[in-house]
Amino acid sequence: MFLILGKMGTGLLLSTAAKMNTEKHCRTSRCNRREFLGAAATVTLAAAAMPAVLAQDGRKVTMAFVGCAHIHTPGFINLLKKRDDVKVKFVWDHDQERAARRAKELGAEVAELYQVWSDSEINAIVICSETNRHKELVLAAAKAGKHMFVEKPLGITGKESREMARAIADANLLFTTGYFMRTDPKHLFLKEEIERGNLGQITRARGSNCHSGSLGGWFDTEWRWMADPKIAGVGAFGDLGTHKLDILMWLLGDVEEVTAETRVITRRYGACDETGEGILRFKNGVIGTLAAGWVDVDDPVQLLISGTEGHAVIVNNQLFYRSKKAGADGKEPWTKLPQAPREPLHQFVDAVKGNEDQPLVPVREAAERVVVMEAMYEGARKRRWIKVS
């Protein structure tokens, strides 16, 4: 559920999948929330021109946690604790008990925000606060010159997400967020095949990302805020849907118009939506659909792409691919796949250390996912198509 960026108007040189780190990790696109805590994947575009002020390779990266509310916080803590080249110096959270608990796990100090922003030793931060606190924290971090890993979604609204993206780009800072599905080898392969034209003209696509979070009470206690759209910005449809929306937009480009339908099923979390289905009209003419929710006992068909010269579908973690140009008949699972990069947080730390060949997502793309998702929720409320501005 991670992004890095150089200066936004200068044009980023993006590395190809062949330049990615070859460590295998999270080879399946069906990493659910629990699986992701132990084995997330990460993003696939790398900025070849990185900010100049970076830690030198071989030195420790000194970091701080700014907010520890997100459900992925424990996994991020465990990841960083296993790295000898990372020192987490400070932990801040508006909940003092939570800050103290996470600081103890990290061997760090509980700090006030002004200490984080003013400490020149800290050059990177992890923001895992509630989403409605992101804007204030991100803008302050940008002003203080801190590279940042921010959990998704970037913001509550598209407007504030774009404001954050501009601030990060203007400060020439590294940034990453949690779109871990970009590192799934099957998604990497399909992106390459689409770019080669081996599927012909893409006509339609379907993405699905569902689990049983509501049925299992995953958000009953410490993570309850994630089922409150006023705090999280979205319900189930946006929480899980943003991942597959990112994949669809990454593969197919910008979206022109959307609508959606959302539903409350169990009422375990009050009026928070627990499932939804969206329709997207892409600027290139592709018709897309998106399913996401917390009330599914299974989600076997997670991606389908149909073109005039090829067809691809991921079923039960296996890719079935048909394309005469690629010599694929679709009868057996396609296994000639690129290797997966490391988890996004690893990528972020490596980039802060000065490793330029990291597959990273531009912050503009993180903001635009919020814009499109916000439009889908508007379409669900108004029961009509919404133009994506």
Account of the protein in words:
The chain has 389 residues and is an alpha/beta fold. It has two domains: 14-180 and 343-361, 3-Layer(aba) Sandwich (Rossmann fold); 185-338 and 371-387, Dihydrodipicolinate Reductase, domain 2 (2-Layer Sandwich), CATH 3.30.360. 31% of the residues lie in helices and 23% in strands. It contains twelve helices and 17 strands. The strands form three sheets. It has a nine-stranded mixed sheet. Strands 5-4-3-6-7-8 form a six-stranded parallel sheet, sandwiched between helices. Helix 5 (134-144) runs parallel beside helix 6 (158-170), helix 6 runs antiparallel to helix 12 (363-382) and helix 10 packs across helix 12 (363-382). The longest helix has 20 residues, at 363-382. The protein is globular. The model is unreliable at 1-56 (pLDDT under 50).
